[in-house]
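Example 3.2
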Amino acid sequence: MIRIEDFVADGVIPDIAYRTAESPEEVIHPRVDVRDGMLTFYSHKERHESHRGYVLVSDFLERLAQGEVGLAITGNRPSNGLRTTITFDRVDRITISPRLEQFLAELRATGRVADTDVTNARQAVFDVEARRFLDGFMASDNPQFVYWLPRYTQTLARVREALSRKAPEDLFDLIWKSRDNAVSNAGQGVMGFAVADRLRGRLIEVIGNIAADGSPATFGAIIDRFEQWRVQGELASVPRLLVARAFAAVHPERYHTTVDASKQERIVPWFAEHTGFVAPEGGWAAKAAALSNHLARCGVFGGDLERQNMFPWFVFEQLRGANGKVPFRPGHTSKLATGDARGSPEGREIDYRHNVIQDCLFELLCARHGEDAVGTERPTGTGGRADALVCLPDGRFELYEIKPAPTAADAVRQAMGQLLEYAYRRGGLQPVSMHVVSDAPLDEITSEFLSHLRSEFALPIEYLQIACENGDER
């Protein structure tokens, strides 16, 4: 039995196609939005109604089946993403698929969509664990929002601007020759510059093809094209990651930023378990489009497309690898010493002290363990980020949490909850030791308290003072 959601793919209904009047002709499909957990179309002419223009898909199809005149909803142009009205009175420009025609015929006979077993979109929900990850991701101090989000936003704007001018050639370097174009870091998957330059004309044509049709079917066709070039000896291998990254850059409304197919396979089970995602058959594009549409249906990002597209990568970084360990990457990025200018003076002072302590802590730990063993702002496996981690030779971790505070007691109180969660919550680090780091000196009573936790509860907790003024440890 056909369900309403069976007609939805990549946030649109491909079974309805509208051909534009102007040249060059474009094919537009109705855009599906999720409002209060329900599938809707937007009708600008009905914006003054109580539903503010958001018509339930089920209601609209009933009206379409009954032959109501003047029906109009919106879709987005493939070339530039601009919203366009689809007018159903223009029957010469509307094409409806045979299966939807059959569905409408059944509606005319029954008069009700309810008879077709409509699946409620509310099934797409974040459970407690997913909410925990989401909270960690959306935290205002998430470094991804400082070092990645602005660059990602700029890249998408640059792509939109070039395509609006019908100038895909302006995107050649960004799409095919940039190791990190802020959509994704291609790493070893980047194409050799000499090869890219030799294929420049054809690669620019590929960008145009993607802009015209960003569907998973087009992704498969383009991969086949690259495979032909490989067989002909023009490529050593098919740059699947670069092609996926191109789709994610040109169509961010369809594809998230985790463009490595193997990494996406790692996160699909997590989204299935914690958000109700049902992965379709197919390769990277089919699953990425379905996951992006699913996240939009969940409604937890408030229409923030960029953050929505970044979230799957955040989840990937939090999950344990095939070796059963939380991924670790050494390194440190020093933050602005002035702290967060958006906060209160007290908040900026705490940020400043935190940043200074973190710089000093990184230097101290590198001196003890070596730079390859120390990382800051690293995933904990629980949706959080550790201020500092040391990866020991046996693969176990030392966990450090920084809390600038007037007293050691305050620092311990503030740090304890995070340390325990990062250490022992499901998926956590299970560290060999936990360290409260602060600029406050350790007093006798707090020292006695920590000793009691170690002896009576076997908590491997320590205290480290680093004075902001000179970075001395005590």
